User: Fold this.
Amino acid sequence: MADDPRHPRERWNRRYGERPPPSEPSAFLTDRADLLPDGGRALDLAGGAGRHAIWLARRGFEVTLTDVSDTACARAGARADAAGVELDVRRIELGVEPLPAGPFSLVLSHAYLDTEVWREAIGRLGVGGVALLCQPTVRTLERRDRPGRSWLLEEGQMEAFTSTLDGIEVLELSEGWTDEDRHEARAVLRRAAGC
Assistant:
């Protein structure tokens, strides 16, 4: 039930209510600006309070942000208004409710782990569309006690996942420590022509 404190929506509403979410986009996204398409439709999976979606909207993308949290969605809408950009904000429980229809020129998943949702979202890329995936791995627990184990990739899991995608070019695939002491797996993917 949605009012059950164990339900993802309630858990994330509490979390967004307890501390302010980051407002600046991550370096994972901004450092790859030259790999992004020139506008089009973008899908931000579990986009929280909009830090990535607003950055993309300022660059001319028509951004759909999805998140399970009412609080996050409200903050994303308010931040977009304050920034003078438009976002299509949708409260969706990923993996349970359907994703927005494509095609998209960009899919972003930053710190959200569900490989089946990733696969479905990547399937909504148009030709030449780019997907950016970034997720901490279990090695993060060597230096930090969060996120919980269920939100971490195994080492090599991102590479194994990308090897199962048909018609997708791997532009970047890496694992390593960030300046924030997280060990992250990162992938930048593009849908090839004719697929």
About this structure: Residues 18 and 177 are 27 Å apart (CA to CA).
